[in-house]
Specification:
Number of strands: 12
Number of helices: 10
Oligomer: single chain
Length: 298
């Protein structure tokens, strides 16, 4: 089996890889992590190479750009390779859970639903404030997945008249980036009430706010189910995080691929958010009630 991951230096992709390896081992198979390096071009080239090599009979693809890889995925399926889309869709519709390429298996998250839920969490975090100032630290505006998520977040925030979006700067997926951007946000908007962003970026925001004695003033919402994110929510430092059990997600995607290879009939479409509690909306109440723990470390 070949796992086409976002990037080898990404903690989220490494969590997926852990699940992949666990499941492959249970079936006495072998797996290889092909480093996508957050590049659609790289993944397309990797797919072309491995389709030609004939080395693998299962592809699990965590697409950096779901649209870019469609021709290669079609080619792989035509050649008899089992293809499972994991976490990100293969195709251009980032709201859809069902397979967008005939013959593939889809174990994915809806980026649109994810963004909408982040917006809802922010509105809830605003509580009874007559006016609430929110900042959204978007991930990577060059990735179609992030573009779809950002649009959904902003659209949801607009549904509540008391919410005022102060900005949507790029927070990225590193704590260091989150620190820098949060410092800029506070300089421009000292009256911010809620900050949303990737779990890594919000960890950076936490450091800045703690240093300034503002943790009680600003509600934080992460996007990611890491151990750190869950612990911050459990302790009450963060209001919530949106998370899925990513090791489980990688294992499920791999299991279904193997089952299909062996002539079985696994589910064609699985919503990743449903593999964990509360559809991914992990507030303190959910974390405590379910004894939830993160499956990977940022």
């Amino acid at each position: 089996m070949a796992f086409f991951g976002f990037a080898t230096d990404n903690s989220f992709a490494q969590a997926t890889w852990k699940g992949v390896q666990k499941e492959v081992k249970a079936y006495h198979g072998t797996a290889t992590f092909l480093n996508g390096n957050f590049s659609a071009t790289t993944q397309v080239q990797q797919l072309q190479t491995e389709i030609s090599s004939g080395k693998y009979n299962i592809f699990v693809i965590q697409a950096n750009d779901g649209t870019a890889v469609v021709p290669e995925i079609k080619q792989a399926i035509k050649k008899g390779i089992v293809v499972v889309a994991e976490f990100t869709q293969v195709g251009s519709n980032y709201a859809e859970i069902k397979p967008q390429v005939p013959g593939e298996i889809s174990v994915v998250e809806s980026a649109v639903a994810n963004g909408r839920d982040l917006g809802k969490l922010a509105i809830n975090a605003c509580g009874k404030r007559p006016s609430c100032n929110v900042v959204y630290l978007q991930g990577d505006p060059t990735l179609p997945l992030d573009v779809a998520r950002t649009r959904a977040v902003l659209a949801e925030l607009k549904t509540d008249k008391k919410v005022h979006l102060l900005g949507d700067p790029t927070g990225g997926y590193l704590a260091s980036t989150g620190e820098t951007v949060t410092q800029d946000v506070l300089a421009a908007h000292p009256n911010v009430n809620v900050i949303i962003g990737s779990s890594q970026a919000i960890e950076g925001a936490t450091t800045v706010l703690k240093g300034r004695g503002l943790l009680r003033k600003v509600k934080l919402i992460g996007n990611g189910g890491s151990t750190q994110a869950v612990n911050y929510v459990k302790s009450g430092v963060w209001y919530a995080t949106y998370g899925i059990p990513e090791v489980t997600d990688g294992a499920v995607a791999t299991k279904y691929g193997i089952e299909k290879l062996q002539g079985g009939n696994p589910p064609k479409a699985t919503n990743s958010a449903n593999l964990g509690p509360a559809g991914g909306l992990w507030t303190k109440a959910v974390v405590v009630k379910t004894h939830l723990k993160g499956q990977y470390s940022d």
